[in-house]
Amino acid sequence: IFLYVGAEVSIGSLLVLYFGQPDTLALPEAEAGYYVSLYWGAAMVGRFLGAAAQRRVAPARTLMFAAALAAALVLTSTTQAGALAAAAILAVGLANSIMFPTIFALAVTGMGRQTSRASSLLVMAIVGGALIPVAMGAIADSLGYAVAIAATIPCYAYIGWYALRFHARSS
Description:
The protein is an all-alpha fold. It has one domain: MFS general substrate transporter like domains (Growth Hormone, Chain: A), CATH 1.20.1250.20. Helices cover 81% and strands 0% of the residues. The chain is built from nine helices and no strands. It has helices at 2-19, 29-53, 59-79, 82-96, 99-108, 115-124, 128-143, 145-150, 153-170. Helix 2 (29-53) crosses helix 4. It starts with a helix and ends with a helix. The mean pLDDT is 95.
């Protein structure tokens, strides 16, 4: 959850500036702000779609798919330009949508009497949303916004690995 919240908040925090870059959309901040609402709106829509999907597909499998999709979309956005770069990064909101509840549910599965303790640790891991964006900001200042956003790929890779590990263990 630390890495997921950190990646999600980092991307959401950098979007206005990223969309202002000449290689992305070169938008003024006020107009770029509109697109940020699309990122968070995609996350909301994805939560509804993800809830339906997880009735048919194992949660660990949907988490693996979502993490791989998010990493691929970030890679696409940061290696392409213009509308494709913008659309790809906005679609990350959709990929992120099912991660928090799925990671949480998988992490507490089988914890028995330790479920309350595990839940409290998972809730504390939300601090990733405060710490990782600071690192991403430093990367953006020194190497650029695309590199900072690309730095979320290891976060998604770890989430995918976690889902794969959990899926293999529960199969």
